[in-house]
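G., the chain you wanted modeled:
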Amino acid sequence: MDALRVKSVEQSVQDTEAPEHRLRKDLSALDLTVFGIGVIVGTGIFVLTGRVAREMAGPAVALSFVVAGIVCALAALCYAEFASTVPVAGSAYTFAFATLGEFPAWIIGWDLMLEMMLGAAVVAVGWSGYLNSLLESLGIPLPDVIAGESPVFNLPAALIVLILTAVLVIGIKLSSRVNLIIVAIKLAVIALVIVAGLFYINREHYVPFIPPSKQTPAVEGLSAPLIQVMFGVTPVAFGVLGIFSAAAIVFFAYIGFDVVATAAEETRNPRRDLPIGIIASLVICTILYVAVSLVVVGIQPYQQLSESAPLADAFKAIGLTWAATLISVGALAGLTTVVMILMLGMSRVMFAMSRDNLLPARLARVHPTYRTPYLITIIMGVVVALLAGLLPLATIAELVNIGTLFAFVIVSIAVVILRRTRPDLPRSFRTPLVPLVPILSVLACLYLMLNLPVETWLRFVVWMLIGVVVYIGYGYRHSRLSERSPEDRRPTSADEAPAS
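Predicted structure as tokens:
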């Protein structure tokens, strides 16, 4: 049962004050909201809209965004309470450690580490594709060997990762300022898409709004949603089931508000600012997603939408090439912030795990000047750059989604547990209607998880099994809470009590 040992909230907060681990507190509620928008508005709105409309939902993709937004809202209320109560880096990892125990926390941390690392690498590859497309329109395409469909090494993708790594090392405030500028650019582009597109909407493209169900190769075999396989339902796309299957995919578009929680230690007033940042970014992005998806399927039939650049190509189809160019610039800006904030979240999760000795403790060192976890940031930046340079552009949204939904389930359960075990803790934000809202959050997340393809579940299980092996081989024996390594434990009140 040592694997379920809990790290108290007080100990988690105390660890943040250690000089060698202290991060600089520079972020405000506005910074956190912009961070959330920066990572949420990216791949989902610029890429996934076309794919899910063509293959799963048709014009009803707007409803898929609404469904995913509702699921995220339930989880966001749980995150907001935890983030304001336990303002410590690590997000779901830290929350799980304070309620469910060390092993569940390790599993969540291991899960988040993979999702953010792979997500950042693949989004960087997408960034390279948009850059090459923009340069081609200007008559200066990059050589295929470094930026084509199948480059030997994707140099632009690797370079953008390394540049953003340097920004993250220099400091969280610089990162937030860079993010603010880029977010302003892409929000202006999205406003352009909505306003300009309104004049070219053809109402006939909305009929039928929910296309009739039918079998398609996209949902056959291992690509079929698990829930349809479990209950022996013939896998279908479109129709009502297609809306929910699409919601499980476009859920990727909302990943980001949970990353806000990883910056808890670098927030000036986390008990007030974290709930604002989490909820505000989610609400703003939900409105933008629904509006953009309605405009895009309105100006071009959903069957003709591009999968790689649906927004830009839709405007090209109606002759607005100038708008398509601006959209490409906005997409570059959007994907830049996604890469940066995924790397930020990944480094903070690993920082928290290293501080607990579940990963090598030396990785938790903070830069003496910039007060950032520079060793972790640099190492992970190099790893992500190599992955971005070598990985082909493939859709891993489903793998990222299942990991994030799993984390949401854990956080929702943990809110109820912490209410019962520590009712005395000060909570500046309280999740309403506990335990109803957390229960609804768990059920909604599990339902979306079951709508993900079978192959996604298989990959997820394999990665989790690898995590179990690593925990048994390293984390359990080196943990600061382990009696086997007392030299790594901080003194507790019991340790300091005089012997009788």
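The radius of gyration is 22 Å.

Shout if anything looks off.
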